[in-house]
Amino acid sequence: MAVVSAAKFNTSISPTWCPGCGNYGIWAALKQALFELNLEPHQVLISYDIGCCGNGANFTRTYAFHSLHGRAIPPAVGAKLGNKNLVVIAVIGDGGAYGEGIQHLIHSARYNVDITVLVHNNQRFSLTTGQATATTLSKTVTPTTPFGEIKKPINPLLLSLDSGASFVARGFANDGQHLAELIKAAVKHQGFSHVDILQPCVSFNKENTNEWYRSVIYKLDSHKYKADNLLRAKEKAEEFEQNGKLPIGILYQQERETYESQIPQLAGEPLCQQSLEGIDCLAKL
Amino acid sequence: MDKEVAIKIGGEAGFGIKVSGLILGKTLFNAGFKVFGYSEYPSLIRGGHNTYQLNTAKNDVFSVTKKIDILVALNQESLELHGQELNNGGVVIHDGLDIKDIKDIKDIKDININLMDLAEKAGGALTRNIVALGAVMNILGMDLQLFNQELEREFGDKGVKVVAMDKKAARLGYDYLKKFKIGAYLKKEAGSKAGDYIMTANEATAQGMIQAGCKLYAAYPMTPATSIMHVLSAKQCDHHLVVHQTEDEISAIGTAIGAAAVGVRAATGTSGGGFALMVETLGLAAITETPLVIIESQRTAPATGLPTWTEQGDLQFMIRASPGEFPRFVIAPGDALEAFYMIQEAFNLAEKFQLPVIFLLDKLLSESDFVLENIEQHKVKIKREGFINDNELERMRDYKRYELTKNGISKRALPGQLAGVHVINSDEHDEYGYSTEASDMRTKMMDKRFKKLEQMMAEAPEPQLYGPRNADLTVVAWGSVKGAVIDALREIGDKYSVNFLHLTYIWPFPAKRVKKVLESAKNVLLVENNKTGQLADLIRQETGFELKNRFLKYDGRPFFREEVIKEIKKYI
């Protein structure tokens, strides 16, 4: 029954993703999470990057702001500052989050604005036919790296941990239930939430396939792993470089005052509902 | 005495030249004199050369002159660079400097004061400027009490001790001048204030933004736009306004557009270089039809250029910036009072037509001190347009954010409204906002956005023609050049038949009006603070008129009044 009701987040348009694309799993998990959080489509604003994940703007029934490549986060921040009552989510690919617009991830993490950033990380610029991104593993051959990628890939979780994100998690596109729980926790978290989502690209990533991911990921056991320690979280975030394993789950969560909560002007009604009557700009001059 | 007096204070950067100059300006203003304050400084925190020039008169003054009457030279460089600007009979105040550079100026009055000695006597070397200004007060023939009042206002929050020290410094300078017999330049009169406020155009813009109900300003510091952010930051708590400093200009405009998309009156501001970074998002505001005000204060460019100097080099860039085509407004006020009104109009226009409005200033406007007189605080009414309420939305059942309408404007449901869920889409889209690449819809959506143009042109105020309707010469200019031309015309007086067409709402281009004026003009002179005459090119493009007489300047300095007068006289 739950699955049926999450369908309220469907639009009349069918997804155009490739059969087997990891986006289907992320999409389903996102809708499931919103549904289980008892949210209605009009209460949610999703700011989308450009790319395969960004095309989700047409398939997911919430308010959507389809932004520019690398620029989904600034409008999300602006929307949250403008209407703090909205649940604000940014959906970005690895190209937009860790390449073109990496500064926005770092800085919004730093000031802990209450938005959730979901990164569809498939290690490729897939919509433009599979060039290497900042997360492409070294030595990988792509159209732009015919002799194998020389550069070292970025570690997105270390990056956001170091930047001050108060919620950092990693999920897997093809483990929908687990991912839905992560997204729920991320949205509920008061502050900046970053969920890096490992996502197979069936068309342009023949290395990091569903099977490959399944062979390297493991779930963090919430009984054994407590996500309240930054140093431990950084160790977890670095496991792939150390032993080739990719832990999924919440790596780090910290209760910290949000950016908005420290701005006195935002204490009352949301900015978008402030009355514009009787303004006297010259009063104190 | 109606004579205008120009006073320049020059010295090393970092010693409060501008602050002390403005104190003198406010003193004169409060005593009933009009002032125009212009500062020059390098892009350094300390060590470069700074000047502040005050032009003051009984009548209006909106521009700076090349020639000055009083030079306060706080270092040798000031004499070397500005000594020759002194008029015959001018006064130089200095502290034991070598005045060889100005020996040839007729009747020069050399006031050699041991400023440092007097400053130390007053209580501190930092009061050196104030000693000099005390001397200037004497030369002007004004009551020192007026200056003291201003010192209290300016330094009151620093404590009684500081104020007492500054007052003593001013007194020492004032009294020292008694032994020089210099006739008073201005007669001290118990006049009342010469207007309502002294403000830079940046300050006036910031006040106007507050008055217009702007609730979010996202920006990254860049000279000469930064002081807008300073003013708004200081006042944000009084007006439920959030000033958000971002990591870069891309984020600044992105944050502003996000706030605008949820219904907030939002703006961003920068200079040309920062605007260049914003350009992609400018197009995003256009295709998503999100109201957005973008302030661009031009400086001498390209690239880093002369970061603290003025130019009008960005006009064509503002009109054309972005891939693709879309309607926008480009508004360029000519002084601080126009900035106060026009920025408010900018918010109304952005919201009414759901598009980006570029508000174009420059360093001359942004950092010069203007007298604002007869300010009408509520002249521009806030008009909130284009929204749709919840009941209406629910009745509709089939809400289309980008509905194809007669005038191209469709109602905006805001995120949070129950029955208005839609995509605010950067992709070309259908009426609901869903992405489409269909040829007919693409054409329809382009036409929809451009349908607004007709109404935009009808609603934008026309360029103003100053002076007689028929004249031997018509001067054409836009934005900040207004001050120099208006003052020049007043100074040359009625014996010359000259009028002045000033453009402020420049895009969409007011072709009809400009054409009409040019058709009846006997001779036309374009005055523009750039290399190529961008407005002249625009006029040719939009009206077919070729403006051959182009008086252009692109050395980082504004037009001095004398050079405008000289140029005008060439044509009559």
Description:
The complex is a heterodimer of chains A (about 280) and B (about 575). With about 280 residues, chain A is an alpha/beta fold. Chain A has one domain (about 1-275): Rossmann fold, CATH 3.40.50.970. Chain A contains 10 helices and 10 strands. Chain A has helices at about 1-5, 20-35, 75-80, 95-100, 100-110, 155-165, 175-190, 210-215, 230-235, 240-245, and strands at about 45-50, 65, 85-95, 115-120, 125, 130, 165-170, 195-200, 215-220, 245-255. Chain A has an 8-stranded mixed β-sheet with strand order 2-1-3-4-8-7-10-9, with helices on both faces. In chain A, strands 5-6 form a two-stranded antiparallel sheet. In chain A, strand 7, helix 7 (about 175-190) and strand 8 (about 195-200) form a beta-alpha-beta unit. The longest helix of chain A has 15 residues, at about 20-35. By secondary structure, chain B is an alpha/beta fold. Chain B has 4 domains: about 5-195, Pyruvate-ferredoxin Oxidoreductase, domain 3, CATH 3.40.920.10; about 200-370, 3-Layer(aba) Sandwich (Rossmann fold), CATH 3.40.50.970; about 390-460, no CATH class; about 465-570, 3-Layer(aba) Sandwich (Rossmann fold), CATH 3.40.50. Chain B contains 19 helices and 21 strands. In chain B, the strands form 4 sheets. In chain B, strands 9-8-10-11-13-12-19 form a 7-stranded mixed β-sheet, with helices on both faces. A 6-stranded mixed β-sheet of chain B has the order 2-3-1-4-5-6, with helices on both faces. In chain B, strand 2 (about 35-40) and strand 3 (about 50-55) form a beta hairpin. In chain B, helix 4 packs across helix 6 and helix 16 packs across helix 19 (about 560-570). The interface between A and B is large, with 55 and 63 residues. Strand 2 (about 65) of chain A pairs parallel with strand 15 of chain B.
Fill in the keyword field for this structure.
heterodimer, A: 285 residues, Rossmann fold, eight-stranded mixed sheet, 10 strands, 31% helix, B: alpha/beta, Pyruvate-ferredoxin Oxidoreductase, domain 3, seven-stranded mixed sheet, six-stranded mixed sheet, 19 helices, 21 strands, globular
